[in-house]
Amino acid sequence: MPGGLVGIGILVGGGLLVLLGIVAGVRSAKRAFRNSLVGQIMEGVKQEVQEGKVGPEDFKMTQTLAQPKSVSDLSTALVPRINKDFPDLNLSQMQSAAQAVLVKSLDLLCQMTYGSNADTIDRIRAELHGCGIGCTRSLAEELWHKVEAARSEGKSLVYRDVIVHKGGINEYQKTSSTVEITFQYSLQCLQYQERNGKFISGNRATPTQTRYNVKVINILDADRFAWEDIKGVGFTCPHCGAPVKHLGTDVCQFCGTAIKTVDMRIWLVDKLIEI
Question: How many domains does the chain have?
Answer without folding.
Answer: 2
